[in-house]
Write a structure and sequence with these properties.
Layout: E1 3-5, H1 16-19, E2 25-26, E3 43-46, E4 49-52, H2 61-73, E5 79-83, H3 88-96, E6 103-107, H4 120-130, E7 135-139, H5 146-156, E8 160-163, E9 167-169, E10 185-188, H6 193-207, E11 211-213, H7 220-229, E12 233-236, H8 239-242, H9 246-261, E13 272-274, E14 279-281
């Protein structure tokens, strides 16, 4: 099992020592034009997680390709570039210009922008025509049938899935006003974990595609549970804000968690994990 960061939860250029703990680095979402993002305040703590309304703030495709990507390559890590946009053409045009990276993650489910994108399957199909690089579709569990969306993007040419993106939520201040300037934001952290585990399980069963699981992972045991539900790899998000050493710690705890659960080591991944629906192997 490899450990990544969730897109937007780590600035590798500002904290290279944290990034180098990872097995691959996932960039912030890149859009064709620069975006300042939402007005502050853009982050709010909740009882069991965090709300963010960053709004896809990024330097835009041209500057990212010219300035940021060359510097990220100096980290010596496999790179995943998160791609966003507001129509299929936006995504495909960016994908066509990406080279020398491991994977493209298509952000199909950001809750913090107002512009409506084309359907997930349409975007994936356009990107598939534009690049030979592996494409991972990042989906939200907000859809009433996330497995249906997963099947659609798989049929359109996705090579894998990233599950899950944040869910929309609201936090209020003492005067009962929304804490975030935009009102709502994307909920991440421990409260997201049960939802993410379900999404990973049903999407793995529906498609058989490799999955990067994310949503409330704080410990090695959490990572193991994602593996038991069908994730091949995991990504750390909110935990990185409080614990920059989390990738190294979680990796060590994962070995102990396997032993405690009586399953195989993280190298051979032979331990079974049972659920009410089916029995799956642990892809740790």
């Amino acid at each position: 099992m490899r450990i990544f960061n969730a897109s937007g939860c780590l600035d590798a250029l500002a904290a290279p020592e944290v990034a180098r703990q990872l097995d691959a680095f996932v960039t912030k979402t890149v859009t064709p034009e620069p975006r300042e993002g939402s007005a502050p305040p853009r982050i709010a703590e909740t009882a069991h997680g965090m709300l963010n309304a960053i709004g896809l703030a990024n330097p835009g495709r041209e500057r990212f390709l010219a300035e940021h990507l060359p510097r990220l390559r100096e980290l010596g890590l496999p790179l995943w570039v998160s791609v966003g946009g507001f129509c299929a053409h936006d995504y495909a045009e960016t994908c066509s210009q990406l080279t020398g990276i491991e994977t493209i993650e298509l952000n199909l489910s950001c809750p913090n922008v107002d512009e409506a994108a084309d359907s997930a399957a349409e975007i994936v199909a356009a990107c598939r025509r534009a690049t030979d690089l592996p494409l991972y579709a990042k989906l939200s569990a907000a859809h009433p049938d996330v497995a249906e969306v997963a099947r659609a993007v798989a049929a359109a040419g996705a090579d894998g899935l990233s599950l899950v993106n944040t869910l929309r939520g609201v936090a209020l201040d003492r005067q009962l006003r929304p804490v975030l300037a935009r009102g709502s934001g994307g909920l991440s952290g421990p409260s997201l974990k049960p939802i993410a585990l379900h999404a990973v399980g049903v999407c793995r069963e529906a498609t058989g595609l490799p999955i990067v699981g994310m949503g409330g992972i704080q410990t090695g045991r959490d990572a193991l549970e994602f593996a038991a539900c069908g994730a091949r790899d995991v990504a750390l998000g909110t935990v990185l804000f409080a614990d920059p050493g989390a990738p190294t710690r979680v990796r060590a705890e994962l070995v102990t968690a396997c032993a405690d659960a009586g399953v195989a080591s993280t190298e051979d991944g032979k331990g079974p994990a049972k659920s009410p629906e089916t029995e799956r192997k642990v892809h740790a």
